[in-house]
Q: What sequence folds into this?
């Protein structure tokens, strides 16, 4: 389980100065942090209208990170952003998509 990125200052810094890698339906914004752990922010795309859909996107992202062993580098803040299409993909494709994006972080 990962720490959750909570403070608005850290979140703003991540979106302002973080780098971005993306694939169809999923993007990861990342930035080095000074904390000893990985902090994660789970996001849905802004155009997702329904609260039910937004919550499902976050649940799916959280489940993948907590159940799969993925190559998450230390000392990073991550913002995982997905759209509703991502939740409709097969589980294996979701895991592969996230794994490929996380492997590009350095």
A:
């Amino acid at each position: 389980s990962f720490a959750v990125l909570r403070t608005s200052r850290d979140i703003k810094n991540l979106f302002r100065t973080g780098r971005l890698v993306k694939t169809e339906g999923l993007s990861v914004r990342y930035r080095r942090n000074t904390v000893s752990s990985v902090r994660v922010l789970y996001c849905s795309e802004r155009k997702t209208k329904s609260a039910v859909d937004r919550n499902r996107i976050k649940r799916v992202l959280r489940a993948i990170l907590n159940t799969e062993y993925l190559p998450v580098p230390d000392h990073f803040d991550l913002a995982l952003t997905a759209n509703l299409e991502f939740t409709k993909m097969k589980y294996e494709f979701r895991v592969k998509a996230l794994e490929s994006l996380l492997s590009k972080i350095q």
